[in-house]
Design goal:
- This is Eukaryotic translation initiation factor 4E.
- It comes from Armillaria gallica (Bulbous honey fungus).
- Belongs to the eukaryotic initiation factor 4E family.
- The chain is an alpha+beta fold and about 290 residues long.
- The chain has one domain (about 65-95, about 105-290): RNA Cap, Translation Initiation Factor Eif4e (2-Layer Sandwich).
- It has helices spanning about 5-25, 40-50, 100-105, 105-110, 120-130, 170-175, 180-190, 195-205, 240-255, 280-285; strands at about 65-75, 115-120, 140-145, 165-170, 210-220, 225-230, 275-280, 290.
- Strands 2-1-3-5-6-4-7-8 form an eight-stranded antiparallel β-sheet.
- The protein is globular.
- Bound molecules: 7-methyl-guanosine-5'-triphosphate.
- 7-methyl-guanosine-5'-triphosphate binds near residues 153 and 218.
- 7-methyl-guanosine-5'-triphosphate binds near residues 105 and 108.
Length: about 290
C-alpha cells in the first residue's frame, strides 16, 4: 500500500525525514576505517538530540495541520466512567462545544469520552504511538477522530445534513490489516486528501471547506467497520451536483487508502462494499438506497 500523505502532512514528513538524515550524516566520524564501529556516547547523545519533545513548552519542530482534531473513544470498559486526563500536558485541550446539536445528542454521547485534541503532525504521532491499536481493543469499542468543535453524533450541526462512507470487514480475516487501514484513514483525514477541493480552494484564496467531519473505527464481535463522515449528502435528484464529489471521496477511500482495485467487489459474509448512506437514512433504519463505489 502506498502512503496517502499529502499537502502539509507530506511536507512535514519530508522535512522531518531530511532533518533526521542530516543529523545522522553530521554524526558520522570520517576517521573510522571501513567496518570499524563508532563508539557512541549515549549521555552526550541524549543531551544533544533535538526532538519535538525536547522542550515541552516550546516545541522546536512543529508542522501544523489544516485544522485541529479531537480523538474520542468508547468501549464497554468506559461506559459510565470518566477517563483520566491524559498525562501529555503539552497537547492543547479545548472545551466541548455547547450547541443545540450537542444537547440533542446527550444520551448518545454519554459514554463517548473525549481523549485529546491536537493540531500538528508531531502531536498526532505522539498520540498515535501511545494509544492501543484497533486490533487490540475490546469488542464494541470505537475510536472517533473528528475535527475539533464537531462531536461524533448525527445531531451536531456539521453532521446533521451529512452521511457516511463505510466498509465492514470480517474480523477474523482482517486482524492483521485493520490497524494499517485505520492509520491510513486517519492520515488521509488529517492530511485532507479525501476532499482535495479544500486545498484547491485555499490556494485560490477562497475560504477552505472540506466535506469531511470525522472518521470512525468500530470493533464488533464479528467485524470491523471504518467510516468517513461527511457534512453533506447528495439528494436523489442531485440538483447541486454533490454526488460526484461524494463519490470521489468514496473512491479515494477504497483505492488509495484501503488499497482495493477500483472494480473489485468486496461484499460477502460479514463484509460490505464501500458504501454511502445519509445519516437521515441511518436514523430511519429502513431499507435505504446506498451509493456503492
Ligand atoms: P452504531 O454503533 O453506529 O451501529 O449505532 P452498530 O455498530 O451497527 O450497532 P451496535 O449496536 O453494535 O453499536 C448503533 C445505534 O446507536 C444506532 O442504531 C442508534 O440507535 C445509535 N446511534 C448511532 N449513532 C452514530 C448515533 C448518533 O450519532 N446519535 C444518536 N442519537 N444515536 C446514535
Amino acid at each position: 500500500m502506498t502512503s496517502v500523505l499529502s499537502g502539509p502532512s507530506l511536507a512535514a514528513s519530508r522535512a522531518a525525514l531530511s532533518a533526521a538524515l542530516a543529523d545522522q550524516s553530521d554524526a558520522v566520524d570520517d576517521s573510522l576505517e571501513p567496518g570499524e564501529i563508532q563508539e557512541v556516547d549515549m549521555q552526550a547523545q541524549a543531551e544533544g538530540i533535538r526532538t519535538v519533545f525536547s522542550d515541552p513548552t516550546n516545541f522546536n519542530v512543529k508542522h501544523p495541520l489544516y485544522s485541529p482534531w479531537t480523538l474520542w473513544f468508547d468501549s464497554p470498559a468506559t461506559k459510565g466512567r470518566n477517563l483520566p486526563q491524559t498525562p501529555v500536558s503539552a497537547f492543547p485541550q479545548t472545551p466541548v462545544p455547547q450547541t443545540p446539536g450537542v444537547a440533542a445528542a446527550q444520551g448518545w454521547m454519554e459514554d463517548i469520552k473525549r481523549v485529546i485534541s491536537f493540531d500538528s503532525v508531531e502531536e498526532f504521532w505522539g498520540l498515535y504511538n501511545n494509544i492501543v491499536a484497533p486490533s487490540s481493543l475490546p469488542q464494541k469499542a470505537n475510536y472517533y477522530l473528528f475535527k475539533e468543535g464537531i462531536i461524533p453524533a448525527w445531531e451536531d450541526e456539521a453532521n446533521k445534513n451529512g452521511g457516511k462512507w463505510s466498509i465492514q470487514l470480517p474480523r477474523d480475516k482482517n486482524r492483521n490489516n485493520v490497524d494499517k487501514m485505520w492509520l491510513y484513514t486517519m492520515l488521509a483525514a488529517i492530511g485532507e486528501t479525501f476532499d482535495p477541493l479544500l486545498t484547491e480552494a485555499a490556494s485560490n484564496g477562497a475560504p477552505p471547506s472540506s466535506l469531511i467531519t470525522g472518521v470512525i473505527v468500530s470493533i464488533r464481535p464479528q467485524f470491523y467497520r471504518i467510516s468517513i463522515w461527511t457534512r453533506l449528502a447528495p439528494s436523489a435528484t442531485d440538483e447541486d451536483g454533490l454526488r460526484a464529489r461524494i463519490e470521489g471521496i468514496g473512491r479515494h477511500f477504497k483505492t488509495n487508502v484501503l488499497g482495493y482495485p477500483e472494480g473489485q467487489r468486496l461484499a460477502g459474509p460479514l463484509a460490505t462494499e464501500v458504501e454511502f448512506l445519509s445519516h437521515k437514512d441511518s436514523e430511519k433504519k429502513g431499507k435505504a438506497k446506498k451509493i456503492v463505489v
